[in-house]
Design goal:
With 193 residues, the protein is mostly helical. It is 69% helix and 0% strand. The protein contains eleven helices and no strands.
């Protein structure tokens, strides 16, 4: 979707062409995804709710709605949606669900619950980069700097990583009393905060 404005306009034309009928759930879901990509969270929730209205919404609708609700600040609805996903066999072990629960818990400052959710996401999808970073942050907040450094190191093992991630890894290593890994951090030409 290189032309998001064009995609939104086309989907809105389809919506208005329905003339009193609901938009096809798959099209409403797509419209919600485009709005979410644009970070138009309120419009995304409206489209996802429209997709869900007749009971035939695509499988990921509740997950995407929960993420949009989280960005809108409606944590209670986001939790209700994600908890409902946990009751459905098909999504109980979806790493995206557990990552979203971790992100919600982190946003609420519940770092213990965030760490558990991120860990569960990683059990299901060991290469889930965002869950690995989230786990590192949760471990930092729990005062477990060495484990946080290990989590960041695993992310950095998959690619060069962002400078802030290398700096966080270095800071956690120092807090844990570990030497700098291969001179890749503060004191090696990289600025630390």
């Amino acid at each position: 979707l290189g032309d998001l404005a064009g995609a939104v306009a086309e989907l809105e034309r389809a919506r208005h062409g329905a003339r009193g009928r609901r938009l096809d759930p798959a099209l409403a879901f797509t419209l919600g995804c485009v709005h979410a990509h644009r970070r138009a969270w309120g419009e995304a929730v409206t489209a996802f709710d429209e997709a869900r209205a007749d009971g035939h919404a695509p499988a990921d609708t509740d997950l995407y709605t929960a993420v949009a609700c989280h960005h809108l600040g409606d944590q209670a609805r986001a939790h209700r949606l994600l908890d409902g996903l946990g009751e459905a066999d098909a999504t109980r072990d979806d790493p995206r669900r557990h990552y979203a629960l971790g992100a919600l818990s982190a946003a609420e400052g519940d770092w213990g619950a965030a760490g558990v959710a991120f860990s569960h996401a990683l059990t299901l999808a060991p290469d889930h980069r965002e869950a690995r970073i989230g786990l590192g942050v949760a471990l930092e907040h729990a005062g477990r700097a060495g484990e946080a450094a290990d989590s960041y190191e695993r992310v950095l093992d998959t690619g060069p990583g962002e400078p802030w991630l290398r700096t966080r890894r270095a800071a956690c290593s120092l807090l844990a009393g570990r030497p700098e890994p291969d001179g890749d951090g503060p004191g090696s030409g990289e600025l630390a905060c």
